[in-house]
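DM from R.C. (forwarded with permission)

"hey, sorry to bug you on a friday — could you get me a structure for this? deadline for the figure draft is monday and I only need the backbone to look sensible"
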Amino acid sequence: MTTHKNQRLDFLAALSGFMIPLQARANGELSHRLGNGVEAALFSFGSGLIIVAIFALSNRQVREGVSRLRLAVARKAFPRWMLFAGMLGGTFVAIQTHVVPFIGVAIYTVASLAGQTATSLLVDRMGLTGGGKKHITSRRILAATLTVFAVFVSVLDRINAADLNFLFVSLACIAGAVVGIQRALNGRINEYSEQSFATSLLNFIMGTTFLVIFLTLTLIFGDSKIVAPPAGPWWMYTGGFIGVMYIAWSATIVQHLGVLTFTLFSVGGQLVSSLLIDLISPTHGVRVSWYLVAGILLSYLGVIAGGARNSQLQK
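My reply, with the result:
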């Protein structure tokens, strides 16, 4: 019975990983139709904020989590600048909506995972996640090296091609680095809220605020303009909903599987999903090659190499 339950949880963890590339594809399509990545990011983040806010108002535990967080801020239990972690989430989505239409979901996913893995070394060394500073082990360096190398392999057949813009690949790596730092800061915030949705509410508020300010600046000082929601496939407006569902789903599953097992299955689902999306519903000009498939496999090997050090905790 326990075995069947664990198998179901493993499957659900992989399925949660499927959601992230789906969100990237939805946000990328909306950005393409709007012609404005920042406005598309605001649509996604703003709709997510509305969903989380409605849930928070109707759930006593979330409201209590917000109260605990408010008290922690009042007594200066942690640096106030950490409250702005949600702005990193807004930055991540803004980059995602701008980059995916140009390089596709799969390359974006591989590059962002490389950024996350490499940044995790710095985050742990600085002790941002709490529990003090952590040593950078040879296994962690191997994991980071594998995932960064995976980006190079993924685009190897397109290095001399006119359709590959290394700026977009670099931005995808930066997006991964940004979300890696955000997760570390959210972990610290969650220690005080003790409620993942309360932490998420703070993130969505800060992220939406950042995107409103950013969009306003582009309207004033740039050549951007507000575009009415365009007609198109209904799924391009699901980015915010998918993001909220991923948070809810992952927060529940990780309590039963543990961080390591959840990460391994989730990343596996994320990589498979990104490949399937680029095969079934690619953005314009995107193609799947064996180099990309090899890069995806290398990315997963990198995640396994980085997670294997905690395998004893899962026994």
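R.C.: lifesaver. The radius of gyration is 19 Å.
me: no worries. The mean pLDDT is 82.
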